[in-house]
Amino acid sequence: KIIDTWTRIAMEIEENLIKDLEKDRDGFNPLFMMVHSGARGSKNQAAQICGLRGLMSKPQRKVTSVQIIETPIKSSCKEGLSILEYFISTHGARKGLADTALKTADAGYLTRRLVDVAQNVTISMKDCGTIMGQEISALKEGEKIVEPLNERITGRVALVDIIDPVTEKIITKGEKEISNEQALEIEKGGIEKVKVRSTLTCEAPAGLCAKCYGRNLPTGKMVEIGEAVGIIAAQSIGEPGTQLTLRTFHGGGVALRIAEITSRNADISGQISFENLNAVENPDGHLITLNDKGRMIIKSRGSRKTGYNIPIGAVIYPKKKAQVKQGDILFEWDPYSIPIVSPTGGSIKFVDIITGITLQENWVDERSGGKQFIIIEDRVRHHHPKIDIRDSKKKILKTFSMPTGTYLLVKDNEKITPGTLIARIPKEIGKSKDITGGLPRVEELFEAKIVKNPAVVTEIDGV
């Protein structure tokens, strides 16, 4: 939370700074002109020069995880840094230089491995005649659209006829290429998913067929037989590798974090319905979700509808079948922790939660309310902390296991109502956007590597 607060402040300062620079000299401020035209530097760098340098990333031996130093550098480069601040920021600068040297080799190696694997994938026939395909929708990160639907389907071959839901007119016939105009029409028509032919489902005996591949981007026409698409793909993934590697260099180790979104607003007006929702009502009369499979659907007067995935522990404001207007808040959640919510009322009973062994008390400053209770790991591993919820006859209604690092929000023997927050598990925060998120992540996807926290899958069925 500390990190998030500072991130927000840094973003506010950055926005205000750009506004001030824009007003200065009627928009002819040299710094503003350089950043705004895209000639040199970014808003973030301008903010480092004359706003505040912000949070720095910790120097680490391992490249994969990045932690952020909680104390930000409050001075800007123009004011000059104090000795301690200067010392912290040298970490970043050195990390940038070391990274550059090490990563260039890595990136080249990735390209070579990819080419080696994909070199025999070529276009071998016009049409393999498969009836398989893939559903494509807009690419989202959370709820933010990273790549809209029209960009993803342009130049692909439609698997079945694509029909406008309102006019029932065929936009693109099956087995035909989707043009730029048709792709825009599909998106405007409110179609969220489109079935297209895909290289993953191609049934050509060797290589791929032209229809599953789609348009050849350099020529803008359908791909020709004999095109070495495997090598093109390998080089396309490998090429940004060198840039991924050099990315830290410019920030000088400054941790670039985006403040998370905490609520969702309605994109259209209409009536609300829910799918797969498991929720309880809290004392305020709002629903609190107990699972993360739930979806909220808004249906407007026409046949337009949009859906939102509801995260676990979200507070939902509108009731079922309620009418909402565009821009209304639908639900809010805490993006920094996974909440544990009680589905029933009753009294709390701590099991194996012992102060000093599995429970640590932290004093926080008086203003934020005294103590914090955190579950810690038992060194001997004899204790397994959990919380039971019991009714008046001491019968156990529900049991929750408490993993290490959980913050408790209730006391022993406390009476609770359905929908009460019992505890929250902090999420791993500090996904800094520098190289460490870039290249190692890409390499991980291509390696059959043993993951850190694997899921346990049952090998047999039974009770």
Automatic annotation (TrEMBL):
Residues 1-75, 80-431 form the RNA polymerase Rpb1 domain. Its EC number is 2.7.7.6. GO terms for molecular function: DNA binding; DNA-directed RNA polymerase activity; metal ion binding. Pfam families: RNA_pol_Rpb1_4, RNA_pol_Rpb1_5. The keyword Plastid does not apply. One of its GO terms (cellular component) is DNA-directed RNA polymerase complex. One of its GO terms (biological process) is DNA-templated transcription. This is DNA-directed RNA polymerase.
